[in-house]
């Protein structure tokens, strides 16, 4: 009975053996699936990888077309606008309290108009005393002069000696000298009194007011300033090497910063010598301004053309690397960038003017040139052409 059972296994054992043989098959299938999935992902990654080096591809840049222009060498100097005449008005002989100040900055005044008054009662009293003393000396001198004349007449009759006549004449001469001295003292007192009324020295405008009534002032203290703007002077200093540039009668162009006005003029005068400390030469340009629209004490620029106009090529300033008097640019021929070094003539308003070594209508790289090397391939994007600026200047203010 037992032998028959061992030779014929139970159905449960058969099912267990079947499951044991299916597990390796499932593991193998899963492994193959994972390998297939990993291989697919690797293939996809490899397919999307760029096999070409970035350095070997064309560089994306922006370019403009160079234009023909004219370059005019020019000097630019910064200067100051000053009135034709200017005066600081104040007492010159007396010290006193300020009684009134009748003007404010901007007031228009005429020559001789009263600007301020001082409390000069002490000077007026002193003048009155001197005037009385002068009158007394004058009467004394007149009496001595008459006495000397009568004594001289008695000399002919022998009634007086020559010595008496000489002494009378000496006393009369001394009194006459004292009278003249007293008149000078009186004139000085009159000057002090007149100094108490401050008047405009010329037609003009009040520029500044420094003192108000009640302040005590001394000789040399300025109360107000008067300026005449009917004619304005542009004044500037130039390096001594530009002495010939600012010769009298040289045409100039002026820009006034305060008003934004542009005007033209001529060099009116030039100093014959250079300043010993700064080694600069002073020059001036006169501007007629009868309507008094130009504020003085403000800043301006003067532009003076020198030499002759030269042919040039104009490019944007950002298209070049400037080193001293030379600039390096990249020009594009076909799709290849080539480095080119050219002489610099000048610059103006964001434009650079170079020599004719850079031909007009050449394609010049602007953006992206810092990543370029000579001979690189480029992918061009065209930028706006530089605006025409007319005759160029050489930049920098002096």
Structure description:
With about 400 residues, the chain is α+β, with helices and mostly antiparallel strands. Among the domains are: about 1-50; about 60-70 and about 310-380, Beta Barrel (conserved putative lor/sdh protein from methanococcus maripaludis s2 fold); about 90-200. Helices cover about 30% and strands about 35% of the residues. The protein has four helices and 21 strands. The strands form four sheets. Strands 2-15-19-18-17-16 form a six-stranded antiparallel beta sheet, with no helix packed on it. The longest helix is centred in the first third of the chain and has 38 residues, at about 10-50.
Distance between the termini: 129 Å
Number of helices: 4
| Structural shape | elongated
Radius of gyration: 50 Å
Helix content: 25-40%
- Look at the structure and give the mean pLDDT: 82
Q: What about the largest sheet? A: 6 strands, antiparallel
Strand order of the largest sheet: 2-15-19-18-17-16
Strand tally is 21
Q: Helices, strands, pairings?
A:
Blueprint (H helix, E strand, L loop, with lengths): L1 H6 L3 H38 L10 E7 L1 E5 L2 E16 L6 E6 L6 E2 L4 E6 L1 H36 L5 H33 L2 E3 L4 E6 L6 E2 L6 E16 L11 E6 L4 E10 L9 E9 L10 E7 L4 E7 L4 E3 L2 E8 L2 E13 L2 E4 L8 E3 L12 E5 L16
Parallel strand pairs: 1-21
Antiparallel strand pairs: 1-20, 2-15, 3-10, 3-14, 4-6, 4-9, 5-8, 6-7, 8-10, 10-13, 11-12, 11-14, 12-13, 15-19, 16-17, 17-18, 18-19
Précis, in short:
With about 400 residues, the chain is an alpha+beta fold.
């Amino acid at each position: 009975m037992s032998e028959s059972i061992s030779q014929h296994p139970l159905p449960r054992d058969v099912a267990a053996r079947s499951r044991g043989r299916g597990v390796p098959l499932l593991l193998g299938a899963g492994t193959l699936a994972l390998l297939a999935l990993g291989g697919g992902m690797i293939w996809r990654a490899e397919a999307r990888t760029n096999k070409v080096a970035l350095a070997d591809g064309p560089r994306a840049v922006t370019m403009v077309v160079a234009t023909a222009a004219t370059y005019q060498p020019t000097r630019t100097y910064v200067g100051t606008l000053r009135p034709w005449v200017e005066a600081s008005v104040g007492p010159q002989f007396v010290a006193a309290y300020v009684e009134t100040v009748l003007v404010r900055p901007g007031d228009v005044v005429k020559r001789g108009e009263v600007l301020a008054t001082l409390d000069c009662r002490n000077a007026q009293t002193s003048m009155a005393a001197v005037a009385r003393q002068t009158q007394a000396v004058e009467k004394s001198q007149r009496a001595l002069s008459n006495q000397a004349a009568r004594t001289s007449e008695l000399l002919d009759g022998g009634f007086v000696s020559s010595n008496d006549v000489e002494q009378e004449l000496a006393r009369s001469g001394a009194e006459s000298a004292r009278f003249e001295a007293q008149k000078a003292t009186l004139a000085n007192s009159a000057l002090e009194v007149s100094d108490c009324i401050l008047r405009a020295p010329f037609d003009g405008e009040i520029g500044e007011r420094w003192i108000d009534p009640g302040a005590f002032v001394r000789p040399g203290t300025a109360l107000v300033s008067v300026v005449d703007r009917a004619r304005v002077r542009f004044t500037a200093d130039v390096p001594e090497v530009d002495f010939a540039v600012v010769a009298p009668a040289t045409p100039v162009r002026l820009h006034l910063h305060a008003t934004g006005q542009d005007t033209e003029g001529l060099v009116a005068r030039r100093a014959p010598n250079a300043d010993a400390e700064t080694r600069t030469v002073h020059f001036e340009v006169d501007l007629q301004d009868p309507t008094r629209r130009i504020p003085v004490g403000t800043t301006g620029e003067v532009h003076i053309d020198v030499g002759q106009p030269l042919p040039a090529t104009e490019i944007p300033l950002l298209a070049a690397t400037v080193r001293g008097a030379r600039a390096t640019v990249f020009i594009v021929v076909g799709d290849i960038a080539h480095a080119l070094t050219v002489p610099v003539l000048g610059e103006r308003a964001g434009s650079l003017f170079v020599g004719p070594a850079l031909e007009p209508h050449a394609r010049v790289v602007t953006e992206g040139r810092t990543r370029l090397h000579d001979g690189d391939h480029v992918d061009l994007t065209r930028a706006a052409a530089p605006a025409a600026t007319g005759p160029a200047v050489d930049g920098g203010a002096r």
